[in-house]
Structure formats: C-alpha cells, structure tokens
Amino acid sequence: MNTILYCRVSTDKKEQETSLKRQEQELIELAHLNGMNVLAIIKEQASGYEIERDGVFEMLEYFANEEAECLLIQDETRLGRGNTKIALFHQLNKLNVSIYTGIHNGVLELSESDSMVLQIVGVVEEYQRKIHNIKIKRGINKAIKEGYDPAKNLSNRNLSSGRQRKEFPINEVVRLRGHKLTFEEIAVTLNGLGYNVSKATVHRRYQEYHNT
C-alpha cells in the first residue's frame, strides 16, 4: 500500500526542527512496521488552523490522483486543528484514504465528538447534492417544455465506424462529475436533455475520455 507521510509543526523556531525530524523517523518506522511503501514525505511549518498550506494540497493531490491510499501522521493535531481538522478528515474520507497515526500505532481512532460532526457534515453534503441535482433536472425539464431542443446543441460528438455509438456531450459529463454527481445521476440528467443513455454507457465513455 502506497502511503504519504505528513509531518507538521506550528512555528519555524529552531527547536521545532527537531520535532519534525522525530515525527518523520517515527512515521517511517510505522510504515515499515505495516509493510507500506512510502511514496512521499511532506514536512511543513504552519499553523494547524490554517487550511491554505502547500503541504496539505500536495498531499491531497496524491490521493485525488489515486497514487496513494494511506496517510501517516503522528497524531490528528498534526493534520490540523479546529474546523480545519474536520474539513480535512471529511475530504480524506471522501477520497477513501486510510489514516494511521503514531500515537495509536495503527489506524486513527476518532473521538466520539469528531465522528458525530463528520456524520452531520456528510448528511448535510448529501442533501445539498440532492437539492443541486433536483434543481438541474427541474431546469432541464422546464427548458424542454418551453421548446429547448438539446439535439441542436451537441458538441464533441463521439462517432466510430461500424455500429453507431450513442451521441451525447462528454464535456457535460465531465462537468457534472466535477460537481460530484454519480454516473446514475448524470445519466438521468442526460436523459432529461433528450439523450437516451444508460449509466453504464456514461461511465464507459467517461473512462474512455480520461484514457485518451
């Protein structure tokens, strides 16, 4: 399992450099103990309340690109503090990242209060997504009733020889995926626009788009 080691101290004082080195060494040992492949070691000196950290975005990019599956930190406060910590926990959870800590010598054990907050955040986000999807579908249906013809607005047609491929705007699929819509929801949206496509077809064409 590829893993990212993240070490942080809050200030740039000389004595904090020793803490960074100690965190790094402990996490390397933890990675070896669990048979993990260390892909990158990220170290930074910044406040845990600050979300705009170069190291944080570098770390998230590894996970978003599916280059790593696990994050190792000394303890949860190294990742962040206050709302920043909850926000990063939530983002890492959405990316299916396993978090190991040196203090637990294994998988991170969230406090009961943190777990409760993350559940609430997840529920709220899910309902926001549903409301967003409903707005899209209502808008599409209203436009069609008022005479909008989606066939006249095709772009990036996907054509091939032999059996004709179903045509639909792949750029719209990419845009909707960027808004965290599922392939099933995208298929429903496209059907509302007049494109008779299945979830499987949308998923397959999306994969083709990224592969090419």
Please describe the structure with a list of short key phrases separated by commas or semicolons.
single chain; 212 residues; alpha/beta; 54% helix; elongated
Could you please describe the fold and organization of this structure?
With 212 residues, the protein is of the alpha/beta class. Helix content is 54%, strand content 13%. It has 8 helices and 5 strands; from the N terminus they run βαβαβααββαααα. Strands 2-1-3-4-5 form a 5-stranded mixed β-sheet, sandwiched between helices. Helix 7 packs across helix 8. It is elongated. The two termini are 27 Å apart.
SSE arrangement:
Blueprint: E1 2-9, H1 14-33, E2 37-45, H2 54-64, E3 70-73, H3 76-79, H4 82-94, E4 98-101, E5 106-107, H5 112-145, H6 170-178, H7 183-192, H8 199-211
Parallel strand pairs: 1-2, 1-3, 3-4
Antiparallel strand pairs: 4-5
Helix pairs in contact: 5-7, 7-8
> What strand line-up does the widest sheet have?
2-1-3-4-5
Q: Indicate the radius of gyration in whole angstroms.
A: 22 Å
Shape: elongated
Sheet/helix structural class: alpha/beta
User: Which runs of at least 5 residues are low in confidence (pLDDT < 50)?
Assistant: 155-162
Instruction: Tell me the span between the first and last alpha carbons.
Output: 27 Å
Mean pLDDT level: 84
Q: How many helix segments? A: 8
The succession of helices and strands, N to C, reads EHEHEHHEEHHHH
Q: How large a portion of the residues is in β-strands, by DSSP E?
A: 5-15%
Helical percent range? 40-55%
* Largest sheet report: 5 strands, mixed
| DSSP strand count | 5
